[in-house]
Amino acid sequence: MKVLVFWLSAVSAVSAATPAAALEAFERSSLVIETAAGGAYRFDVEVATTPAQQAQGLMFRERMAPDAGMLFVYGQPQPAAFWMKNTLIPLDMLFVGADGRIVNIHERAVPQSLDAIRSAGPVKGIVEINGGMSARLGIRPGDRVVHPVFGTAK
């Protein structure tokens, strides 16, 4: 609950008055999601590591390229909760454990919703991609995210 309260407070602070000029900038990286069925899908992601970046996330975006996304990174594995306030596009949220395995997926998060979307356990990161992409590509819990954050880069 402590994580959720912090997250909601941080998001509220950013969303209360975020002029376009005050939006956070993000470093970019690539990751690959390897599925149990043998698929390997590359995404170019923006990386959110600071509290301000994580509070902003993909807010105010009207579209996102099919191979784009955002990677939220925590210093230590922890339970996570997100909401969709000021997020204008539906998203799939892939909650990823410290070993790079997907713990759970929330598909097609509803834009602007204030409902909390929670990880099923402690996670090291969350990958957000376009809503419906997980189902289209056959991405499921247990699949692996290849990225240096998870120690799984090749």
Helices, strands, pairings?
Layout: H1 2-16, E1 27-34, E2 40-48, H2 51-56, E3 68-78, E4 81-82, E5 91-96, E6 102-109, E7 117-118, E8 123-130, H3 133-137, E9 144-146
Parallel strand pairs: 2-3
Antiparallel strand pairs: 1-2, 1-9, 3-8, 4-7, 5-6, 5-8
Description:
The structure is a single chain. This protein has a 7-stranded mixed β-sheet with strand order 6-5-8-3-2-1-9. It has a two-stranded antiparallel sheet with strand order 4-7. The radius of gyration is 14 Å and the shape is globular. Mean pLDDT is 89; it is low at 1-18. The protein has 3 helices and 9 strands; from the N terminus they run H-E-E-H-E-E-E-E-E-E-H-E. 17% of the residues lie in helices and 37% in strands. The chain has 154 residues and is an alpha+beta fold.
Q: How many β-strand runs? A: 9
Shape: globular
Largest beta-sheet characterization: 7 strands, mixed
Model regions low in confidence, pLDDT < 50 over at least 5 residues? 1-18
Helix content: 10-25%
- The end-to-end distance, rounded to whole angstroms, is 35 Å
Class based on secondary structure composition and strand pairing: alpha+beta
Multimer state: single chain
Percent strand equals 35-45%
What's the overall average pLDDT, rounded? 89
Rg over CA atoms, rounded to whole Å, is: 14 Å
Strand ordering within the main sheet: 6-5-8-3-2-1-9
